[in-house]
Amino acid sequence: MADSYSEVTSQNWFSRIGESIKGILFGIIVIPLMVILLWWNEGRAVTTANSLKEASGAVVHVAADKVDPANEKKLVHVTGDAKAEGPVVDTDYGVSVPALRLVRTEEIYQWVENKRSETRQKVGGGEETTTTYTYDKKWVDAPVKSVEFKKPDGHTNEGDLVAGSANFSAEKVTLGAFTVPEDFVKQMGSPIKRAVTDADLATLPSDLKEGTKIQDGAFYIGPNPKEPKIGDVRTTFEIVKPGTFTILAAQLSETFEPYQTKAGDAIDFIEEGTVSSEKMFKDAAAGNMMITWLVRVLGFLFMAFGFMAIMKPLSVLGSVIPFIGDIIGMGTGLISFALAGTISFLVIAIAWIVVRPLLGIVMLALAIGGFIYTRKLAAATKPATV
Q: pLDDT tier at 366 (50, 70, 90 boundaries)?
């Protein structure tokens, strides 16, 4: 059951001016950092693209039933049945299962604080902010420090996890004639739920047996699973079963290691089932593109926030009459996003000119167009700031 607590705080116009001036420092710091981030991101994207292109031309397709010394240190693509020579064991809980790996997830029942604020401008440039703190009981993956809550009274957390979440691998996993290294095994497959049994309960360490029950296929440490209390712990397990897997990595004697490309990236792909090398490279290229655009968007947004912070004093000055401050704020917001877009395009364009001149030139033209548009936009907003 959730409950809430609200508080109202006020800030006068002079105080807001002071805070907005402090915000300029944030903008001055974050804008150069985002330029560096965008430049690094484009370099990373090019390196990964070149590494994938290099690796795709070097791959050797091999059978899993035989290790050929002639392929030593070469990038090999191999598909075979992955098997574990023994069970995978969770030493903390004593759970032992025939699988490639075992994933343990521990959660604890805790109070969680959520915060929501609404700000209203007042005539004269002041602001009134209503902040509502909502408290809910939830299952979380780590204990929550209730002493840091705005209203800790009545929301006190207690208890701790038993051992935390973990990812265990079988002692030895083979793929045909090859041995799969542990760091590869921990990347294998999509885990599926493995319900705990009475036999698992019987093998629990003595210090855990008392007070532990089975509820919905999980271990439950607490008095009553149907009515969770603060500090109760539940533990679930997932496994990756033996099966067919495809590995794309460097052959190292009878095992594997990441393949180091001359372009810069190391290649080690593992997928469940029979997967062609072409698809593995295609998936990796798609992942590279997704990461590239995600960083681009984040860099652009934080840069825009930086410009907004720098121009914030203008809207605060005009907020003596609230709607005037809103108009100025909209104008500076548009300028901030236009500036951030222009600089982002400029950085990306320069980064790509060397690698793909045509693409870089097109983006540079867009950046110049954005700069011209920003100047016109800034000129158009000047009358509103007078």
A: low
